[in-house]
Amino acid sequence: ETGVTQTPRHLVMGMTNKKSLKCEQHLGHNAMYWYKQSAKKPLELMFVYNFKEQTENNSVPSRFSPECPNSSHLFLHLHTLQPEDSALYLCASSPTPGTYGYTFGSGTRLTVV
Amino acid sequence: AQSVTQLGSHVSVSEGALVLLRCNYSSSVPPYLFWYVQYPNQGLQLLLKYTTGATLVKGINGFEAEFKKSETSFHLTKPSAHMSDAAEYFCAVTGANSKLTFGKGITLSVRP
């Protein structure tokens, strides 16, 4: 248990489905992140939130919609995904953006069929 | 701006042998440096970090790394590899108030 909890651990969804990934931390951190990790590719930073405000969106397609209702929770809403979106989605948090390193969750393994 | 270079994609060592994973960085500000380990189907776990002070830092599981400013390096070492060390390792760099930048990672295999 790292202090960052992601649910579900595994998700299989069809291209027309709508699903959500959840991330929760009770470390008192103010910054939260979504990363995409695909096979044989570097970690891709998707979104950054600081004090619930989105501070970075790295040209992520609109079929991925993040939500940060408070500093402890982060969601990634998924809609009409493509098979190439299949990947491990990692959530992380840190006291502030950068500087102290991140604490990662165990990830959600997403398969789009 | 920061960047990290991890040359190669795979390192294989025998059990009991020295582990050396290389990391070079570039940074326009004093860097903070990190090594993370990822086991299959898991998130990234912090192994060790350098922020300020002593340039040789010790981490979990017997790993250590040395910050060498003149060489812009932060190589990860372990004197004696164990089978349980087989995983993917990521080097990362950040500066004050900037986000973490990761290298592409390197897979460590340990042969019996």
Task: Describe the protein in words.
- The complex is a heterodimer of chains A (113) and B (112).
- With 113 residues, chain A is mainly beta.
- Chain A has strands at 4-7, 10-13, 18-25, 31-37, 44-50, 53-57, 64-70, 73-79, 87-94, 103-104, 108-112.
- In chain A, strands 2, 4, 5, 6, 9, 10 and 11 form a seven-stranded mixed sheet that branches. A four-stranded antiparallel sheet of chain A has the order 1-3-8-7, with no helix packed on it.
- In chain A, a hairpin with a 2-residue loop joins strand 5 (44-50) and strand 6 (53-57).
- Chain A starts with a strand and ends with a strand.
- The mean pLDDT of chain A is 92.
- Chain B is mainly β and 112 residues long.
- Chain B contains no helices and twelve strands.
- In chain B, strands 2, 5, 6, 10, 11 and 12 form a six-stranded mixed sheet that branches. In chain B, strands 3-9-8-7 form a four-stranded antiparallel sheet, with no helix packed on it.
- In chain B, a hairpin with a 6-residue loop joins strand 10 (87-94) and strand 11.
- The radius of gyration of chain B is 13 Å and the shape is globular.
- Chain B starts with a strand and ends with a strand.
- The chains are: A mainly beta (113), B mainly beta (112).
- The interface between A and B is medium-sized, with 26 and 24 residues.
